[in-house]
Specification:
Number of helices of chain B: 13
Helix content of chain A: 25-40%
Distance between the termini of chain B: 65 Å
Strand content of chain B: 5-15%
CATH superfamily of the largest domain in chain A: Glycosidases
GO molecular function, one term (chain B): transferase activity
CATH topology of one domain in chain B: Spore Coat Polysaccharide Biosynthesis Protein SpsA, Chain A
Protein name (chain B): Glycosyltransferase
InterPro entries (chain B): Glyco_trans_2-like, Glycosyltransf_2, Nucleotide-diphossugar_trans
Strand content of chain A: 25-35%
Radius of gyration of chain B: 24 Å
Number of strands of chain B: 8
CATH architecture of the largest domain in chain A: Alpha-Beta Barrel
Pfam families (chain B): Glycos_transf_2
CATH superfamily of one domain in chain B: Spore Coat Polysaccharide Biosynthesis Protein SpsA, Chain A
Number of domains of chain A: 4
Largest sheet of chain A: 11 strands, mixed
CATH class of the largest domain in chain A: Alpha Beta
Largest interface: A-B, 106 and 89 residues
Structural class of chain B: alpha/beta
CATH topology of the largest domain in chain A: TIM Barrel
Number of helices of chain A: 24
Strand order of the largest sheet of chain B: 3-2-1-4-7-6-8-5
Oligomer: heterodimer
Distance between the termini of chain A: 97 Å
Keywords (chain B): Transferase
Shape of chain B: elongated
Helix content of chain B: 25-40%
């Protein structure tokens, strides 16, 4: 019984205060189990006889000065207190030895205490020195408030591993509230599962007000964390106070990842059938305390999986990855509608095809050269210089891919770009880069197009200068004539832009033609011979060319930055690179001057550019139009659209944009990192009537009309727009109730719906227009709206969300009036009155609009749909009588 | 003046019990000039045989033309409908589900409605019926078939949904208030412009009517002229996430169509015309994310470019800037 262990005799008599943890190990002294010399030290005697791996401890301990008083013993593992218990069991042998009827024994299952730092203990046990230490150094049975520890019998043969398992073993707490003691501790149980919703109760009896966090596991997959925040009447009664002890865990509370984990466990479990409820474990967070799962909780893995399936179906969370793919697939460009009529303004964007490598470019510039080669190596030369330009949506695309062009067309159409004007390169008969154009025709893309003959030499300088020519364009008359043979096939496409059947052809640098007027005449002759009524030749206003009559062309097309005017602002920018030789212009000034530009006598198609910067091509010798912004571009383009509508004949209201994708010149509508879709949105906005109206005042101002009225009109519009935006914030405020909006009534002949009464069904109207009901007779005027809130209960009917609920007015006429109730809510406060958990109470709110109700006196009833018969409803009368004046 | 020819498309699948009743209700239409286009989606029962047999008798004399087709494999309602649209020759098209019924004056009334209003799309009030009534006095709930909640008081709810919003367009944005393709009546020109039915399992009808809304203002004829047969529910719940996907597609297609340019239908819900109210509706209906996506306005959580987050669009600031600039002296050109 007693152990022979050599200890030092040093001992402390009186109880001491709890020591610092650091002191603990060094100053706790084990006592002895010997019972001789009871009048002398040590004052405490005792021993731990049995300590099993399951956590059972047996032994005895008493105080020699006070042998009949029970002793509190604490179990420490390392510096952490693990459990506590008291002596009080009979030990006949000790009682005999002492000669007194003492009860110094203890024989317990170790009950891990509430706030035991389980994690800390486990960590401690995993430390290297713990792994090496003998068991007796890891555990301490300390007599509370002393520096004395109980020795352990050498027969105790536990290891550190046993201790580890013991600590990590789930402690099942009690599922009842009996025998509550001052120790506190968790009580609770999982007592219900219904439709995938797991519920139960849990309380920290030491501090019932404190929330308890619960982790829900299915096998070892964590489903989620919940707290005890629901009222539980039965628990509250037993604890004699309003305590929120209930917890609920719904499938919707899971995230996609935890749900995936749960599904995996359930799928495996379905294969190996057994009681699925055993997989469920709920524990108090931070402790090892597990809630017992009551036998009333039964479910099969298949059931639970089904509920979770349904829940995820409602959320689509697991399927979210599928969703994205599916949406993309279903949204893929389908036939889009005809947007423009001949009267409308048509937006045409210039399109550069040089976005795929081809042999000539590979030869001249290096392998794989495309436009991107320059774009990626650009850099900024002054503060605020927008370089390099980085494409966003389409990336550094390769036009060899069909999808890119298709995506471009989709993007263009969505934002109001009606057509592309493809640059057509042909050098004395050699075609280059017709790839995208050919594909457009071949696949008959849902987008109009026309061609612009980019007729000039390709040189290394890319600014039109002639030195170091790579591909020479010799404009002999014959070559120029042969050119038209190459393009006539494109005219046959139904998507090619035509004016009254005459295809539109642009020429970039008309002055380079050997004999322009003559050539154009010949072209027209050939085109007519091919079956078209005519050919419309439009010359670009490049290099100072402005007069179509000089060249025999039918119209001109602006080509900014050619022909724009603005001052140089090099000196106004900061941190300009020393070697920078180019010119910096103010974009805003350009736009303003473009608004001012007078109209010529001939047909001119206007053109705007979102910005312009060719430093990517020419480096420090490049030119920059600085201070460009989508807002100013939008205003500029709006003016051009307004002018086209006003000045050009129907069917010819074209406005051009330079360009869709001139990345090397910083002139593109395609999304980039800086502006995103804003330039495209500017295009869309510019085509709207409201923007065109706003342009009028800008045009008027430019034409010299400085009347305050125009300024005032624009001010007023701006104010209205801003007020509207602010009002919108109120209107979309989700917190305002009811969100469903006012609910109108429709007349329904009496007898067309079957009304069923249910005994003990009840409806209470809590408030009308926010105020409590003081009088059951309510008088209202027809134009008035009435806000009603209340709750309804139909015994035996589970009022699920999807069951429709209505308000019915029945009066003396042969029609009753019915309105929908959109907003529903749970009413916990009322639900608590009803003990049957299947007895659901549903709250409702509505705002009723009596406009179509005939004057009269009506009884107000609530109708609740029933699943059995689609033409029958449960009717629950309210006490309200409505008098409509 | 000759009355217009109306093509009645019957997409059918495994409704042998009901198909004769359905065809009879077409036969009894007061409007004379009809062509019947029967597209069987590879039924496994005798639906096609019954139809073929019936249409081989004098029953078919009443129709100007009869087309009978059987899809080589079960392809879905939208395919049958598109096949039917391709074959239709009439100026107007009506559709009927193979288990439903027309009321006798239906087509006559609908033609009146479209010609009076100038619209190209019309539909009527709907009543529901079912053969399988719950056994009288039964207490066991298993004996009572459960219907999907969406069918409860369908007729009343159709009327309530139409009354709820200021225009039919907004009601249509919430759901298909015409209930089913069987209730659709439209011009063939409109169907071609829309491009037919999309490959959507649950929402191809809603998509079609919304695309119609962009082009023409649909007309509601407040008279019950269509009988919609109810069946107890087979739970579609596991495929609900598909319905969610399709809802997104339908709404985004609609938003895309109205963003592309002014809608041909001047009464179509539009952010321009219903300034403020449109966005408020979209927000209350919880469509904001779809609207933002189509409008090119990234919402919270989506990757934004540096300045698009900073500056809101539509601030008219460009006009103000240029107005200021115009006050300065003009640069000599």
């Amino acid at each position: 019984m007693s152990s022979r262990i050599e200890f030092t005799d040093a001992m402390v008599d009186q109880p001491t205060v709890e020591h610092e943890i650091a002191d603990l190990e060094s100053s706790i002294v084990p006592t002895t189990g010997k019972l001789d010399n009871l009048s002398e030290a040590p004052a405490y005697r005792g021993v731990v006889d049995i300590f099993t791996a399951e956590g059972r401890v047996d032994g005895w301990c008493l105080s020699t000065s006070d042998p009949t008083t029970p002793v509190s013993i604490e179990i420490y593992i390392g510096p952490f207190k693990f459990a506590e218990f008291m002596t009080g069991k009979k030990r006949a042998d000790i009682a005999e030895a002492v000669g007194l009827p003492v009860v110094p024994g203890f024989s317990n299952e170790i009950e891990q205490q509430n706030h035991a730092d389980t994690e800390g203990i486990l960590h401690f046990l995993c430390e290297p020195k713990s792994l090496a230490a003998p068991f007796t150094e890891l555990v301490l049975f300390r007599i509370k408030n002393s520096r004395v520890a109980l020795p352990m019998s050498p027969r105790i043969k536990l290891s550190r591993d046993d201790l580890f398992n013991l600590v990590s073993k789930p402690q099942i707490i009690k599922g009842s509230l009996d025998a509550l003691d001052s120790k506190g501790g968790f009580r609770g149980a999982v007592d219900r599962q219904s439709q995938g919703v797991i519920s139960g109760w849990c309380v920290n009896t030491g501090n019932p007000d404190f929330p308890v966090e619960l982790e829900i596991y299915l096998k070892d997959a964590l489903l989620g964390v919940t707290t005890n925040s629901e009222p539980r009447k039965d628990v509250s009664e037993l604890l004699k106070g309003p305590v929120k002890s209930g917890f609920v865990f719904k499938p919707e509370d899971m995230t996609a990842t935890t749900l995936a984990g749960a599904m995996k466990v359930l799928s495996e479990a379905i294969e190996a059938p057994g009681k699925a409820a055993q997989m469920l474990s709920i524990k108090v967070r931070g402790t090892n305390c597990h809630l017992p799962v009551l036998p009333t909780v039964t479910f099969t893995a298949a059931d639970l999986k089904r509920y979770y399936d349904e829940a995820t179906a409602k959320l689509g969370s697991v399927a979210s990855n599928q969703r994205i793919g599916l949406v993309e697939e279903l949204m893929s460009p389908t036939k889009s509608r005809a947007v423009t009529t001949p009267d409308d303004v048509k937006l045409v964007a210039f399109y550069l095809p040089q976005f795929h490598p081809f042999s000539e470019n590979n030869e001249w510039w290096g392998e794989g050269f495309t436009e991107w080669t320059n774009v990626t190596t650009a850099r900024a030369y002054f503060e605020g210089h927008d370089q390099p330009r980085i494409p966003s949506d389409l990336g550094y695309y390769d036009l060899r891919l069909d999808q890119i062009q298709e995506k471009q067309i989709d993007l263009a159409r969505r934002y109001g770009v009606s057509a592309f004007c493809y640059y057509y390169y042909s050098f004395s008969g050699t075609k280059l880069m017709t790839f995208p154009i050919d594909r457009h025709v071949e696949k008959n893309y849902d987008m109009d197009f026309c061609l612009c003959w980019a007729n000039e030499n390709w040189s290394r300088r890319w600014d039109g200068s002639e030195s170091d020519v790579l591909m020479s364009q010799t404009h002999t008359e014959l070559d120029d004539l042969a050119f038209i043979d190459n393009v006539i096939p494109y005219f046959s496409s139904e998507k090619y832009i035509k004016f009254d059947g005459a295809p539109l052809l642009l020429v970039y640098r008309i002055s380079l033609l050997a004999k322009p007027a003559q050539t154009i005449e010949n072209w027209k002759r050939k085109v007519r011979a091919a079956g078209f009524p005519d050919l419309h030749v439009c010359m670009a206003e490049s290099f100072g060319l402005t007069d179509p009559n000089e060249f025999g062309a039918d119209s001109t097309c602006q080509f900014p930055p050619h022909g724009v005017s603005a001052r140089e602002i090099n000196t106004t920018v900061a941190n300009i690179d020393k070697g920078f030789e180019g010119k910096i212009y103010d974009y805003i000034e350009v736009a303003a001057n473009e608004v001012r530009r007078p109209d010529p006598a001939h047909t001119r198609f206007r053109c705007a550019m979102p910005s312009w910067d060719n430093t990517s091509r020419k480096g420090k010798a490049g030119n920059v139009f600085h201070n460009a912004s989508p807002e100013v571009f939008e205003a500029w383009l709006s003016v051009l659209c307004a002018k086209a509508k006003r000045d050009l004949p129907s069917g010819k209201r074209l406005v051009f944009v330079n360009a869709w994708n001139e990345w090397g010149e910083g002139a593109y509508l395609e999304p980039d990192r800086l502006n995103g879709h804003r330039n495209l949105k500017a295009v869309r906005a510019a085509l709207t009537t409201s923007n065109m109206l706003l342009s009028e005042s800008l045009i008027a101002q430019a034409e010299g009309a400085t009347e305050p009225e125009d300024q005032n009109a624009m001010q007023l519009v701006a104010t209205l727009a801003s007020v509207n935006r602010r009002l919108l914030q109120f209107a979309t405020d989700y917190s305002s109730l009811p969100t469903g909006g006012p609910s109108p009534f429709v007349p329904i002949p009496k007898g067309s719906i079957r009304l069923q009464k249910v005994e003990n069904s009840f409806c209470n109207v809590d408030s009308l227009n926010g105020r409590r009901v003081t009088n059951h007779e309510v008088t209202i005027v027809r134009g008035q709206k009435l806000g009603v809130s209340g709750w309804v209960r139909v015994p035996g009917v589970n009022l699920i969300e999807s069951l429709p609920v209505f308000v019915r007015l029945s009066g003396s006429g042969d029609h009753a009036f019915i309105a929908s109730i959109y907003d529903r809510e749970t009413r916990q406060d009322v639900q608590a009155y009803y003990s049957d958990p299947n007895d659901h109470v549903h709250g409702f709110r509505c705002s009723l609009d009596f406009f179509s109700v005939a004057p009269g006196i009506y009884h107000v009833e609530i109708l609740v749909g029933s699943l059995g018969d689609t033409n029958a409803v449960y009717v629950v009368p309210t006490k309200i009588m409505l008098i409509i004046a | 003046m000759k009355l217009p020819l109306v093509s009645v498309i019957v997409p059918s699948y495994n409704h042998e019990t009901y198909i004769l009743e359905c065809l009879k209700s077409i036969h009894e239409q007061t409007h004379e000039r009809l062509e019947l286009i029967f597209i069987d989606d590879n039924s496994t029962d005798r639906t096609f045989d019954f139809a073929k047999a019936l249409l081989g008798t004098a029953f078919s004399k009443r129709f100007e033309n009869i087309v009978l087709r059987r899809n080589p494999k079960n392809s879905g309602a939208h395919i049958s409908l598109n096949v039917g649209l391709d074959l239709a020759e009439g100026d107007y098209v009506a559709i009927i589900n193979s288990d439903d019924r027309f009321r006798p004056r239906r087509i006559e009334r609908l033609l009146n409605a479209v010609s009076e209003s100038g619209s190209e799309f019309a539909f009527t009030a709907v009543d529901t019926f079912s053969e399988s009534r719950s056994k009288a006095g039964s207490d066991a709930s298993e004996a009572t078939p459960a219907f999907p909640e969406s069918l409860i008081l369908l007729r009343v709810r159709q009327l309530l949904n139409i009354a709820r919003d200021p225009t039919l367009g907004y009601s249509l944005l919430r759901q298909n208030v015409a209930i089913s393709t069987g209730n659709f009546f439209f011009s063939r020109r409109l169907a071609n412009d829309i491009g037919g039915f999309q490959p959507l399992k649950y929402c191809h009808d809603w998509d079609f009517i919304l695309q119609a809304l962009v082009r023409t203002q649909p007309v509601f004829v407040d008279e019950v002229l269509y009988d919609y047969r109810l069946h107890p529910t087979n739970s579609f719940r596991s495929l609900q996430h598909l319905a969610q996907v399709e809802t997104e597609v339908v709404l985004r297609r609609f938003f895309r169509a109205i963003l592309m340019g002014p809608a041909p239908n001047p009464k179509c819900p539009s952010p321009q015309r219903d300034m403020g109210n449109f966005e408020a509706f979209v927000a209350k209906a919880y469509y904001s994310k779809f609207w933002a996506k189509e409008g090119g306005n990234p919402l919270e959580g989506e990757r934004v470019t540096a300045s698009s987050a900073a500056k809101p669009t539509g601030t008219l600031s460009g006009f103000r800037i240029l107005s200021e600039a115009l006050k300065g002296a003009q640069q000599v050109v």
